[in-house]
Give the backbone structure.
Amino acid sequence: MTVIEKYLSEKLQNREDAGNLRRLSTSRAPVDFFSNDYLGFVTDGIIAEKLSGYSVSQLKPGSTGSRLLSGNSLLVEALEKEIAEFHNADAALIFNSGYDANTGLINSIANRHTTIVYDDLCHASIIDGIRLSHAANKYRFAHNNIADLEQKLAKAQGPLVVVVEAIYSMDGDMAPLKDITEIAERYKATLIVDEAHATGVFGEDGRGLVCMMGLEEKVFARVHTFGKALGCHGAAVLGSELLKQYLINFARSFIYTTALPLHSVYAIQAAYNHMASPGFSNHKLKELISFFREKIRSPADSRWKDSISPIQAIIVGSNCDAKQLAAALQNAGLQVSPILHPTVPLGAERLRICLHSFNTKGEIDLLFKTIKENPCSAE
């Protein structure tokens, strides 16, 4: 065994000993309470049905190169215009994933004079984009804490960038965007909002939280990902035409990667066409979220995070309890995955329940019954 292999083996063994070794799994219980398919675009076959009329030549499996070489097309450029118009933005640039969008955007706009201030619960893709940047200073502010955000901005120097999420992926709670935009304006800070878990769920026809609050002119850049409620793959950065041209020239995760294939572009287009159609509705999902929250309130259970999004989290406090409770739910036919440390801090280990338009009230009743009966979920 080489020195490097020994190091790798020891790191994996440390994870195993701590009870948080990650493993891929293909096992699935019948009821989905764990995927990001909030609107059922994948499960209900909505996107697949809309793609069924395309020919094999249209649904090519590869784009043959990066967007700057052979991978661009009139189709993807037209789609970017549609996406920008849908979200009330001047321009949009499609990336291969939300991770690519966040790392490319944040890394490229910051320089050695920039200070970045970001929410403590921001997604790993945001954190990695900040780490990859040449920003002089990088400050976390306490989650959704406006006073702490202002304190960090008051002591910062140089060009300021604030990064938040509209809906946070682990807690499912909402950013106080109106307060954040006011503070960003006061300190002349550039504001970036990741709308990954708000797209399709919040705002008219799923336009997102920024549009719902009428803050389009207050936000420098928005990241909308397609792999959650839209049931596709990829993401778009929304902003000015100036920002789009800058990213085309300086965002390494856009420049140096093969573009999305045409079948992915058609799928994204189908998702947006569906959301813009008269037949689209996310009301059933919102009704289930309200029903779920009523179950939490009666009787009250303080272990649940406060959330009006499809993401509902119950804190169980240890990797062992999280895995045991998840196993009990899976044995009951409910697919729920435990979220373990180090993905979340010690003591914040949890089950992350994702609600969907295709779930039923009976399935939610069974979930609460199983949690109540499981000995690892002590009150």
Q: What stands out?
A: The first strand starts at residue 31 and ends at 32. Residues 104 and 251 are 5 Å apart (CA to CA).
